[in-house]
């Protein structure tokens, strides 16, 4: 089966590019001597996960307990659930631990820490827990110099149903950077915040075995990882247009795309219509805030090449995408029924619309179909 044969729209994953992206990050952290804990919230795929940890040490990172259950069922036992846990999910987390999973959870709230300690005893487990520390994003995490850091850590350490594993930091604001120098500065703040949290915990007589940091930009462009024990990142495996715009990959590294069919031509408007709308591509417009606005996706030919020119999806309806070019479109290459591939703005969100990947390996032949784990 070839890409020209599959129903559209469909999600395509280029295994050759995926392999190259994974190897580059893996080798970087092997040389640095820091544990890489790949984040699987982008791929949500066991097959991708096996590639991501092949020949390397460290566990995996997930963003939902459903993901944790899915990966655990396929043999992954060292899992970090990297979202502050709601107390109502502790029973689910305990069930995973009783099934043999080495699960780590996180919190940034004192009352939640006390609940974790109490519920762990009731449920017959000891919850290994990281305190999330804010390094500037101001999304979640306790300030590193706050009394709250020591109070939360103390409650976890003293509790009969919990143990303090260390500190976790996430520099999500690295995505707002528009130069590699700026990313490197954020990366250093991320690192130093994690290290400072560890210093404060140890000075208070509290354990801090783990200092966990990570985002794809800071994982790629940080200058030092001294004091860090593990790095979490995930979108590096796929890449996307936004990552390309901020310098974390190039267009030729983007491993995931949406194959779509041309369903109409509007020559007076220099436009064609495709059967991939906002449900297939997402409404993410992250590149609008970068130097090159790429609309709702860059349009490539069926082979993934950019020979069609500077062609983008400029508008989306539920099942229609409007494709235009900065120069006259090559309408002879885009007749009704022709196939194109759309490179996504945000691989995580675009991929979430699909339950499987049609896997290629540097050609247009579909060599495998890999399922995804969606939902919560």
The total tally of domains equals 2
Helicity, as a percent range: 25-40%
CATH fold call of the largest domain: TIM Barrel
Beta-strand percentage range: 15-25%
CATH architecture label of the largest domain: Alpha-Beta Barrel
Query: Could you give me the name of the CATH homologous superfamily of the largest domain?
Result: Alanine racemase
Gross morphology is: elongated
According to CATH, what is the class of the largest domain? Alpha Beta
Amino- and carboxy-terminal Cα gap: 32 Å
State the total count of DSSP E strands. 18
* Rg over C-alpha atoms, rounded to the nearest angstrom: 22 Å
Low-pLDDT parts are none
Instruction: Provide the structure class.
Output: alpha/beta
Provide mean pLDDT, rounded.
96
How many separate helices?
Answer: 11
Topology as a string of helices (H) and strands (E): EHEHEHEHEHEEHEHEHEHEEHEEEEHEE
Q: How is the main sheet built?
A: 9 strands, mixed
Give a written overview of the molecule.
This protein is 30% helix and 24% strand. It has 376 residues and is α/β, with parallel strands linked by helices. It has helices at 15-32, 46-53, 65-73, 90-98, 110-123, 147-158, 180-203, 216-221, 241-245, 278-281, 347-351; strands at 10-14, 35-36, 60-62, 78-84, 102-107, 127-134, 142-143, 162-169, 210-213, 230-231, 256-266, 271-274, 298-301, 311-316, 321-325, 339-343, 356-360, 368-371. The chain contains eleven helices and 18 strands. The longest helix is centred in the middle third of the chain and has 24 residues, at 180-203. Helix 1 runs parallel beside helix 2 and helix 5 packs parallel to helix 6 (147-158). It folds into two domains: 3-10 and 249-371, D-serine dehydratase-like domain (Lyase, Ornithine Decarboxylase, Chain A, domain 1); 39-233, TIM Barrel, CATH 3.20.20.10. Strands 1, 11, 12, 13, 14, 15, 16, 17 and 18 form a nine-stranded mixed sheet that branches. Strands 2, 3, 4, 5, 6, 7, 8, 9 and 10 form a nine-stranded parallel sheet that branches. The radius of gyration is 22 Å and the shape is elongated.
């Amino acid at each position: 089966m070839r890409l020209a044969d599959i129903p559209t729209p469909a999600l395509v994953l280029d295994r050759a590019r995926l392999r190259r992206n994974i190897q580059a990050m893996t080798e970087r952290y092997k040389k640095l001597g820091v544990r890489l804990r790949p984040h699987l919230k982008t791929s949500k795929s066991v097959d991708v996960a096996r590639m991501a940890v092949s020949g390397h040490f460290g566990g995996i990172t997930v963003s939902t307990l459903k993901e944790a259950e899915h990966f655990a069922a396929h043999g992954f036992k060292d899992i970090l659930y990297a979202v502050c846990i709601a107390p109502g999910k502790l029973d689910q987390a305990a069930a995973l631990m009783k099934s043999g999973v080495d699960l780590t959870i996180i919190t940034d709230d004192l009352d939640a820490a006390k609940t974790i300690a109490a519920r762990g005893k009731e449920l017959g487990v000891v919850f290994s827990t990281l305190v999330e520390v804010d390094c500037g994003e101001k999304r979640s995490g306790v300030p590193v110099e706050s009394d709250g850091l020591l109070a939360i850590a103390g409650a976890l350490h003293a509790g009969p149903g919990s143990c303090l594993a260390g500190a976790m930091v996430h520099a999500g604001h690295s995505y707002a950077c528009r130069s590699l120098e700026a990313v490197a500065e954020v990366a250093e703040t991320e690192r130093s915040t994690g290290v400072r949290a560890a210093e404060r915990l140890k000075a208070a007589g509290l354990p801090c075995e783990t200092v966990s940091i990570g985002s794809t930009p800071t994982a790629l462009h940080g200058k030092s990882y001294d004091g860090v024990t593990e790095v979490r990142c995930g979108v590096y495996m796929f890449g996307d247009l936004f990552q390309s715009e901020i310098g974390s990959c190039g267009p030729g590294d983007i491993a995931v795309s949406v194959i779509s069919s041309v369903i109409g031509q509007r020559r007076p408007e220099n436009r064609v219509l495709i059967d991939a709308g906002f449900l297939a591509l997402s409404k993410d417009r992250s590149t609008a805030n970068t130097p090159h606005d790429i609309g709702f996706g860059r349009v490539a030919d069926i082979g993934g090449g950019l020979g069609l020119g500077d062609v983008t999806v400029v508008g989306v309806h539920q099942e229609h995408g409007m494709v235009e070019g900065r120069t006259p479109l090559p309408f002879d290459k885009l007749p009704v029924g022709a196939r194109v591939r759309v490179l996504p703005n945000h691989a995580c969100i675009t991929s979430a619309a699909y339950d499987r990947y049609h896997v290629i390996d540097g050609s247009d032949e579909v060599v495998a179909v890999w399922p995804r784990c969606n939902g919560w």
